[in-house]
Amino acid sequence: MKVSVDILKIISELESHKKDFSRLNYDFSKLKVCIRKFCELFLTQFHFY
């Protein structure tokens, strides 16, 4: 049961920091785009694409 309590705590913290979370999510999506671009570049450079 401790795990579910931890999950509820995490959810409540996320709810209280929704603005911070959305900013973090935005940064994360930018990071994913950068990683994807890097991977595409890497793959095309080495002709694995």
Give the structure's gist in a few sentences:
The chain is mainly alpha-helical and 49 residues long. Helix content is 88%, strand content 0%.
Give the topology, please.
Blueprint: H1 2-16, H2 18-45
Description:
The chain has two helices and no strands. Helix 1 crosses helix 2. The mean pLDDT is 80. The chain has helices at residues 2-16, 18-45. The protein is elongated and about 50 Å long. With 49 residues, the protein is an all-alpha fold. It has one domain. The chain starts with a helix and ends with a helix. 0% of the residues are buried.
Whole-number radius of gyration? 18 Å
The ordered H/E elements are HH
Percent of residues in helices comes to over 70%
Q: What composes the largest sheet?
A: none
Runs in which pLDDT lies below 50 for 5 or more consecutive residues are none
Number of strands: 0
Q: Strand portion, in percent? A: under 5%
Distance from first to last alpha carbon = 46 Å
- SS field, number of helical segments: 2
Structural class: mainly alpha
Mean pLDDT: 80
How many domains comprise the coordinates?
1
What gross morphology would you assign? elongated
Question: Could you list some keywords that capture this structure?
Answer:
49 residues; 0% strand; mainly alpha; 2 helices; elongated
